[in-house]
Amino acid sequence: MDNVASQQLCMNLLAADTEQEVIDLLKRAGYWDNPKAWRLYGDRDGNYATIGNQQSRPEAALVEKIINCVDARLMNECLIRGVDPESTAAPPTLRHAISRFFEGRELRGDVGGTARNWPSRRQLEQSQFITVAATGSRQSPCLVITDCGEGQTPSKMPDTFFSIDRSNKLRIPFVQGKFNMGGTGALKFCGQNSLQLIITRRNPAIADTLDQTSRKWGFTIVRRERPRDVVGEVRNSVFRYLAPIRNESGRGEVLSFDAETLPLMPEGNTALSREVRHGSCIKLYEYDMKGFKSHVLMKGELLSRLELLLPEIALPVRVHECRDFRGHSGSFANTLVGLAARLTEDRAGNLEDGYPTSVNLTVRAQEMIATIYAFKGDKGESYRKNEGIIFTINGQTHGSIPKTFFSRSQVKMSRLAKALLLVVDCSRLSVDAREDLFMNSRDRLSNGELRKAIEEELEELIRNHPGLRELRERRRSEEIAERLEDSKPLEEVLESILKSSPTLERLFLLGQRLSRPHRAGADGDHEGGGEGTDGESGKFVGRPHPTFFRFHRKKDGDRLVRNAEHGRRCRIRFETDVVNDYFSRDTTRGRYHVEVLAGPLDGEELDNSLTLHNGIANWSISIPDDAVAIGDTLTIQCTVTDDTLSAPIVNVATIQIVRPTTTRGGGGERLESHGTGLPGSGGVGRSGTGGTRGVDGPPEPTGIKLPEIIEVKESDAIWQTHGFDERTACMIMEDSEGEGDEERSVYTFYVSVDNVCLRTDMKAAGEDAPVKKAKFVFGNVLLGLALIHDHRNHAQTPVDSSVVDQSPLAAQMRSCKRLDRTEHGAQSRL
Predict the structure, then answer these.
(1) CA angle, corner 787, sides to 784 and 791, nearest 5?
(2) Of 574, 586, 579, 555, which is closest to residue 620 (Cα–Cα)?
(3) pLDDT in tens, 741-776
(4) Which of 300, 308, 468, 573 is the right S-S partner for 552, CB 3.0 to 4.6 Å?
(5) pLDDT given at position 587
(6) With 50 as the cut, is the pLDDT of residue 511 above it?
(7) pTM of the full structure
(8) Element (H, E) at 262
């Protein structure tokens, strides 16, 4: 095939928008049915074992293509400067590379190296060099990903694009690709035949002049060959690419041609319009986008998904919608800058005031930063699907935990589950920690000890974050305020029902009512116009850098002396006048260092997190119970500093390990305290949901305080917010009140009075309809209370498993959290 014919075939393949068009073109060229024209991907007949074991979702696989484009641009910038990417002269990290190559400066401290802080004009300019375009039909779209990066020569394509498990990027510190396989993940999401077109040309400025193909464009098609039921043939699918030209060694080479430029990039909604001199273009035919049904730039569609999976992408990308959608000239393209940049600007007012906020945490000597996004209403659903916590490295999501995490009993943030998103930056993890935490596909977490330890630290962090607790209480108060008076009679009737039965009273009425734990103007809220507050509004106004950072209610330099209960976390409170993002912001970031000066853990790092909110810093420390004994004493130093402070701020605490204590479920009265203790000390640890304990006996479960009862109608906003349908009977929301030893669960019961079974009974009841309704409401509440009480009873009391198995309610609680049917045949959720 001569130069003109090769170029024509290449451009026809690029213009094709269905698999069948591609197959027809290759058949006419005599390639499709010619097995000698196709070469094994990676030169391995077992290549499906690697290619088929990549990302589990199409958008995650697409992200790997975009990351490869970013790497190609970084490599291009490094090579045109004459720097060996594997040498010590190359940038040591991704941020160093961005700062040097695209900002024209060396990275110093925390300043620079992130496109998130670039002006929008610069983001737009740089996004023109990496583009993603959606073409074809709405039902079976194609995606074209193009970059103006280093590119490859036709002769090098087998060793780059079509190699598997080689160390092409392994020793290059500033790129994200490591395993030489991630780009193959998209293949299984491309139609029935996994067709993918690749077009590439090496940048002439860095091309090897000894390579005879150095100035040519190379192109090929990848396809999947499924197994046939023929004796002696491979029993798995294999991937091959078009390589019809035989070289001296007898191996196939890809087609190539000469051309100065090719129209590979989009303009507006025209897919193949802008000329490109070098780089790579990949077209994915009939890509699986069933989860995305509309314009790729709409909220909740492909762009939003990519921004979640690339929350802090190293270089911006321009995304184009080139299918038959209507709109004005500016509605067909937008810049992918990452979720962090999009939400930090928050032009649409999606976030609650004071968010995002960030928290530093250390787990198993590994440092991470968790950024918390709290969305207003249900706005978070536009930016994520089921993710609650995402883990990133260099701005790319490597795994996630679903939002049900916030509903765990150890977290008790179910009221905020749809409003919260945490982004945990793991870029500082050591290499072995990354390997332990993430799968090589970079789209899911491993189930190991490190993951478990991180989850436990995050549970502690979210559960006790003062800002989130305030937000949860405010949401709860707002939700029930307008209905509280209407539900009061229900509660009074329920109380009279319970008190009429001695058995019910013993079960449920041992709990006590609690006043609101965080009143306006209370200590720590900084709403009274004191130090660190705005005198007019009473709101906290932090300084850019701290003038003090000391133990709560102590003077500068005072030593803290206190107890910590064995096997429980130790929490220490500081007061300061610095802004909330002091330890996580991009510039002149504050740093804190924890050091054990004396004691059994001398020199070791402790798992800890530090939340900073409106002048109060809550430091939570995990002291390994197998490394210390009751009576041991630790001396711990916390040092705070930044590049502007003349001297570090140092605080020293002396902590003695004491025997755990218990509290009463209702009043929080401490029943026992063993160990000598230190003057002025007090142990703080996570308490249970209540219970009393004798010196030698097990805890006796206490009762449950009477809940708030809210009737929900189909016309109410709550109906949609909490996912009610016509068969829902009752939903129970668990919150908590108090802190530390005073914390306990409180419940709100949402009973559907538009339940289809209830409405049917009420219609037939005539004048007795209100009675039917009352029975339905009280029946659901009593059933829910019984299940909660039974669950707490068996969870806290060590009993023989045969006894537990004899409890029908316990069996129901163990088997599922959703009751499929109530007495009326309605669905009830716990």
Answers:
(1) 140
(2) 574
(3) 566 777 888 899 999 888 888 888 776 787 788 888
(4) 573
(5) 78
(6) no
(7) 0.75
(8) strand 262-267
- Distances, alpha carbon 185 to alpha carbons 57, 60, 61, 164, in Å: 9, 9, 5, 12
Q: Is 674 helix (H, G, I), strand (E, B) or coil?
A: coil
Residue boundaries of the structural domains of the chain: 3-336, 346-464, 495-511+703-829, 542-700
How many CB atoms lie under 10 A from the CB of residue 163? 18
Fold of 542-700: Immunoglobulin-like (2.60.40)
Q: Which CATH fold topology does 346-464 show?
A: Ribosomal Protein S5; domain 2 (3.30.230)
CA–CA separation, 113 vs 275, rounded Å?
29
Q: Look-up: residue for tokens 């316990």?
A: 810
CB 222 within 8 A of CB 241: yes
What does the alpha-carbon distance between residue 580 and residue 359 come to, in Å, rounded to a whole number?
Answer: 9
Predicted pLDDT of residue 153:
95
Q: Which residues contact 659 (CB under 8 A, 6 or more apart)?
A: 565, 566, 630, 672, 673, 674, 675
pLDDT digits (tens, 9 = 90+) for 146-157: 999 999 999 999
Compute the distance between CA of residue 735 and CA of residue 752 in angstroms, rounded to an integer: 20
Instruction: Identify the H or E element spanning 709.
Output: strand 708-712
For residue 29, the one-letter residue type is A
Fold of 3-336: Heat Shock Protein 90 (3.30.565)
Q: Which residue has the tokens 């707002």?
A: 478
Which letter does DSSP use for residue 199 in this model? E
Which tokens is 675 given?
Answer: 């160990």
Q: How confident is the model at residue 519 (pLDDT cuts 50, 70, 90)?
A: very low
Tokens found for residue 523: 């200590």
Report the C-alpha gap between 586 and 737 in whole angstroms.
35
Confidence (pLDDT) at 528 = 35
Q: pLDDT (tens digit, 9 = 90+) per residue, 434-445?
A: 989 998 777 889
Which tokens belong to 384?
Answer: 């994520």
H or E segment at 288?
A: none
What is the rounded CA–CA span in Å between residue 324 and residue 269? 9
Candidates 690, 691, 730; CA nearest to 709 is 730
pLDDT tens digit string along 684-741?
Answer: 333 333 444 433 444 444 555 567 788 888 888 788 878 888 889 998 888 877 665 5
φ/ψ (deg, to 5) at 82: 75, 20
Q: In Å, what is the CA distance from 307 to each residue of 317, 365, 397? A: 10, 30, 10
Amino acid at 68: N
Judged on CB neighbours under 10 Å (0-12, 13-18, 19+), 354 is: middle
With H, G, I as helix, E, B as strand and everything else as coil, classify residue 635. strand
pLDDT for residue 39 is more than 60: yes
Rg of the chain taking only CA atoms, in angstroms: 31
- Asked if the bond preceding 679 is cis, omega within 30° of 0, the reply is no
Which run of H or E residues covers position 449? helix 449-464
